[in-house]
User: Which sequence fits this backbone?
């Protein structure tokens, strides 16, 4: 049997993740049946589950990939910029449905919650590091602990995702993000 190249395996894995992302976004975790995943990826269940142990592992890999993408933006431009990008072009963020599904599963599935907490550390660490740098530069409030600022920004992010997912993307959300940004800045 011929050996499959690493590039081919990586391309196949990305194909699976891309198809699964749209499937989970459209049908939710429970509605993303194996048959629907096969249709969305244009691959057989054998090909899909050669790369991922099961549907849960596929969903976690997808969620982790999205968290890494968000962490990169958060580390360089801040979590408020992640929110501004989402607001500017919600269709670019086809992982919004995944994020909502993560929130639901965190609430209802203790095993998923434990796995997710291990995997979401990168986004938390990137955001905390940026907040600490901005605080050290004198740009952020120093009267509020950094972990409280992070909790606040996470709460706003979750609310924004819920608003966008429900189709409420009016001009006021940009002004709300201006207010959020101003609220974490150091007052002079």
Assistant:
């Amino acid at each position: 049997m011929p050996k499959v190249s690493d590039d081919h395996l990586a391309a196949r894995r990305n194909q699976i993740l891309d198809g699964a992302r749209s499937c989970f976004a459209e049908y939710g975790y429970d509605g993303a049946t194996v048959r629907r995943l096969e249709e969305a990826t244009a691959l057989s269940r054998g090909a899909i589950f050669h790369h991922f142990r099961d549907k849960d592992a596929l969903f976690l890999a997808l969620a982790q990939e999205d968290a890494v993408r968000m962490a990169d933006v958060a580390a360089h431009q801040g979590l408020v910029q992640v929110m501004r990008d989402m607001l500017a072009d919600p269709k670019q963020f086809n992982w919004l449905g995944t994020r909502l599904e993560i929130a639901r599963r965190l609430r209802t599935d203790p095993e998923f919650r434990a796995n997710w907490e291990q995997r979401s550390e990168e986004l938390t660490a990137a955001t905390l590091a940026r907040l600490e740098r901005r605080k050290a530069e004198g740009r952020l409030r120093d009267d509020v602990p950094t972990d409280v600022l992070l909790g606040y920004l996470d709460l706003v992010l979750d609310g924004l995702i819920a608003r966008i997912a429900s189709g409420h993307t009016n001009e006021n959300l940009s002004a709300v993000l201006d207010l959020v940004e101003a609220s974490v800045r150091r007052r002079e």
